[in-house]
Design a protein that fits this description.
The protein is mainly α and 172 residues long. It has 2 helices and 2 strands. Strands 1-2 form a two-stranded antiparallel ribbon. The protein is flat and about 125 Å long.
Length: 172
């Protein structure tokens, strides 16, 4: 009987050692899982990772503005701004009803047609002025006997460049 008790005690100690080892292994695995989850949740906003590493899961931008409770857009009573109607446009195009095309009375009806609505389209035409600057060289100076070459102004630094008045506007 004593042998049986001793054998059972050895088995209990062996099982306790196995349980302790498994408990330690589970704790280590849980820590590894937690570290991997933290790595998955890292992006360019909450770590030193570059934005290119975000892949397809880009973080949503968060606005620092507090909601005002007002509806979006222009508020009631605000006069607003808009493009003004031009009194003397450069060109006028008249639009007759499409159903009137090919009608034998088209010209007569066109003479009696009334304007019901006007819309203006404003096209901006940009004029580009390109100035070529040329550095000239005199092979032999009559007064000094050496070669002389003209110098560009200090702001002319490249073979092709934008001028002082050129500004790039950001797209809206």
């Amino acid at each position: 009987m004593e042998e049986l008790n001793e054998l059972l005690l050895q088995q209990v100690e062996s099982l306790n050692a196995t349980i302790d080892a498994q408990t330690q292994l589970i704790a280590n695995l849980n820590q590894t899982i937690q570290e991997l989850k933290e790595q998955l949740n890292k992006n360019s906003k909450n770590s030193s990772k570059p934005p290119s590493s975000d892949g397809f899961k880009k973080p949503t931008p968060k606005s620092l503005r507090k909601p005002s409770g007002k509806k979006a857009g222009g508020q009631d009573g605000h006069p607003g701004t808009h493009l003004a109607v031009i009194k003397e446009p450069d060109d006028i195009i008249k639009h007759m009803p499409a159903a009137c095309n090919g009608c034998p009375h088209f010209e007569m009806c066109k003479g009696t047609a009334c304007i019901v609505e006007k819309r203006h389209v404003i096209d901006a035409v940009v004029h580009v002025n390109i100035t070529e600057h040329q550095s000239l060289e005199i092979p032999i100076c009559m007064m000094h006997g050496d070669t002389r070459k003209g110098e560009f102004q200090v702001y002319i630094k490249a073979a092709v460049q934008y001028g002082k008045t050129f500004r790039l506007c950001p797209l809206h």
